[in-house]
Design brief:
heterodimer, A: alpha/beta, Rossmann fold, elongated, B: 2 domains
Chain lengths: 215, 475
């Protein structure tokens, strides 16, 4: 029988080795062994931070971040089921993110989502071609610190403005900081549509997001 | 008489025959097993009636190998493009090379270098500059965005200015439903254009691209089939895997176009990026991109379809050494591989910033590469045995008729490269090439004239652009 320490060490190892299934397995075993899901989640967050630091130093790269992020997501999904039974939310920082209506570009947005996981955020990824009302519902349901809107083309970027306008109309605008990005989205465009921040790439997105969250 | 361009006598093969066979076979396997998604019902009908297996619910199309081979045979290996002025007509394919300018998003201001949005009045002079340069044979829009216009109609506004300010063949994308309007503008200005269809990697042709691409084809304009995979993101991280994926996207497009209009002229184009695994940015200055372009040229030669790597480009934001070496390295690879069209003219920051100063430098780079392609001519005249015998030991070749007659065709004469002595250079202000290029750009813009369109054609372009606005902006 593995001890609690061994279980948590194996959970960490699974994430460090980018093994999704093993990570989920060890998360299950942690629950079965009576380890509090919060404690296991803390191990995951700490591991991701370790990966994030390695990335920051230039020792690890995006595929490593994504691999670790995926493993963490698998394990966290198992633990969060348990946590839902106990408390409302565990982590203090949340990002809701999606690619706006009419746009199906996914890679940049998913990269940003992964980077935020790496920075210790709980991330709700709404996917692609997300209608405006779904963003609003997600803001209402999850009360995130940040809302990330992604759009690749200059035409679909116009939907970012629609989301911001809808937030204003429904009185939700000052409950969340809005971060926009994507191929044709510039600082000028972001300012024009009333976004709180803009980033050119995934690592800048986290920097800007953290700044906005703390402001 | 078409523009001569340049000739590649001995294209270099990067890959062996066996490697090429493997790539082709793997492509057919992808096309047969995985297929390609087409987001347009008309395309699905065309492909189905040609013998493909079509899943209407998902838009997934699987291609029988035999059909692919037949459609490859239908592609012309050589075709002409009719310019506004016959002196600028093009003869695309075979061993011929032409250079196209780069597109951009923002403008690097000619005077200050500041990165800014272009305005409509910037476009005309910039296109005239492209018209003035000998080593640019096709003109694509210098900036895709202009400050005063709505994004949905920017393309049409810029296209009208393009057609007014150059007699060279103009190239166009199929974004924002612009193709049918560009086709109309081409008709009133009595020229062909070089259009585009852009699949999205991996393995997907979106509706607007299909519609636009077929708009160009049905009106008799050649198009490039232009995938833009990013290695490690939407294509395999390996170059060979990307070649296979890209080739599948190419051949799927070939089949669609040839079933739609047999023997329609197409080129196999690409603008691949590598994903920088440090910051996630798609980057295009690396030599991997040059290698992929060289392989594309070889694939084009194998299939007998003209090739068009739409680069080299740079990731640099400045007119600096990085720009120079990134472009030069890939440019040589592409030209020596026998590409038929190469895009090099003006781009910085991948294709986000367009610089008229860089355009002038790129024009010179193109000229240098063309000289590389000319190689060394070895014949009785160039070996010059008689001359060497006559001049003899310690003699002087500068005085000979032979030197007088031959030096000009043996040397590329740079306009921008600095060759004066140090003291002269210092006295002239110790300037580097960017200053000289800026001066040259300004001089050409102020002196180069392009015969205007007729009044009727000019009014028609206005009418078409306004019609675009009415249709697109009132919906």
């Amino acid at each position: 029988m593995a001890t609690n320490t061994e279980i948590l060490a194996n959970l960490r190892k699974a994430v460090l080795e980018y093994e999704d299934e093993q990570a989920a397995d060890w998360a299950e075993r942690a629950i079965e062994a009576g380890i509090s899901p919060g404690e296991a989640l803390d191990v995951l967050i700490d591991t991701i931070k370790q990966i994030g630091d390695g990335y920051g130093r230039g020792d690890l790269f995006l595929p490593d971040l994504i691999g670790a992020g995926a493993a963490m997501k698998s394990a966290a999904a198992v633990l969060e089921e348990e946590i839902k039974k106990e408390t409302a939310t565990h982590r203090s920082k949340t990002l809701v993110i999606g690619t706006v209506a009419g746009d199906v570009h996914d890679i940049g947005k998913s990269l940003v989502a992964t980077m935020f996981i790496g920075a210790g955020y709980r991330v709700i990824d709404l996917g692609i071609d997300v209608p405006t009302h779904r963003f609003l519902e997600a803001v209402q349901e999850h009360g995130p610190d940040l809302l990330g809107l992604s759009a690749l083309l200059s035409t679909t970027a116009l939907a970012q403005e629609k989301v911001i306008d809808a937030l204003v109309e429904s009185g939700l605008r000052n409950k969340v900081k809005v971060l926009v990005g994507g191929g044709a989205v510039t600082r000028e465009f972001a300012d024009r549509i009333g976004a709180d921040g803009h980033a050119d790439n995934a690592s800048e997105a986290v920097e800007t997001g953290e700044r906005l969250r703390q402001s | 008489m078409p523009l001569p361009g340049h000739v590649c006598n001995n294209p270099k093969d990067l890959l062996t025959d066996l490697e090429m066979d493997t790539i082709h076979a793997s492509t057919l396997e992808i096309l047969g097993d995985v297929g390609v998604v087409f987001g347009d019902d008309r395309a699905l009908e065309i492909l189905k009636s040609g013998g493909c297996r079509v899943e209407h619910s998902t838009g997934r199309v699987r291609f029988p190998g035999q059909l692919v081979e037949e459609c490859l045979q239908l592609c012309p290996s050589r075709f002409s493009i009719k310019a506004r002025n016959p002196a600028y007509d093009l003869d695309v394919g075979g061993d011929r090379l032409y250079f196209q300018s780069h597109p951009g998003l923002y403008l690097s201001d000619l005077e200050t270098g500041e990165r800014r949005e272009a305005s409509l009045q910037d476009i005309g002079p910039l296109v005239r500059l492209i018209d003035a340069l000998d080593e640019i044979h096709l003109a694509i829009m210098p900036t895709a965005t202009i400050a005063e216009k709505h994004p949905a109609v920017m393309t049409e506004w810029v296209t009208a200015e393009q057609m007014r300010n150059t007699q060279k063949v103009t190239a166009h994308g199929a974004f924002h439903g612009c193709a049918r309007w560009v086709v109309e503008m081409a008709a009133v200005t009595e020229q062909q254009v070089y259009g585009q269809i852009n699949p999205v990697s991996p393995l997907h042709y979106p509706q607007d691209q299909i519609e636009g691409g077929l708009d160009f084809v049905s009106a008799g304009h050649p198009i490039c089939i232009l995938p833009g995979p990013t290695l490690g993101a939407n294509s395999p991280a390996t170059l060979a895997g990307t070649l296979v994926l890209q080739n599948a996207e190419h051949l799927a497009g070939v089949v669609l176009v040839q079933l739609f209009r047999p023997e329609a002229p197409v080129t196999l184009a690409s603008y691949p990026h590598v994903m920088d695994m440090r910051n996630g940015a798609p980057c295009i200055g690396g030599v991997e991109v040059g290698l992929l372009g060289a392989a594309l040229a070889q694939i084009g030669r194998r299939y007998g379809i003209p090739s068009h790597p739409e680069f080299p480009m740079t990731d640099s934001k400045a007119l600096d050494e990085q720009t120079a070496f990134e472009k030069a390295m890939s440019l040589v690879l592409l030209a020596e591989a026998g590409a038929n069209l190469i895009s090099n003219g003006g781009a910085l920051e991948v294709e986000k910033m367009w610089s008229p100063v860089q355009l002038v430098i790129d024009n010179e780079l193109n000229g240098m590469v063309a000289r590389i392609m000319d190689g060394i001519t070895v014949d009785a005249n160039t070996i010059a045995l008689d001359v060497i015998k006559e001049v003899g030991p310690s003699g002087n070749f500068l005085e000979t008729k032979h030197t007088r007659r031959t030096w000009r065709s043996e040397q590329f004469l740079p306009v921008l490269a600095d060759r004066v002595g140090f003291e002269t250079w210092k006295a002239q202000g110790s300037r580097d090439i960017t200053h000289r290029a800026q001066e040259r750009a300004m001089e050409l813009i102020s002196t180069h004239e392009v015969p205007p369109l007729s009044e009727h054609q000019d009014k028609e372009l206005d009418r078409i652009v306004k019609a675009t606005e009415r249709e697109k902006l009132t919906l």
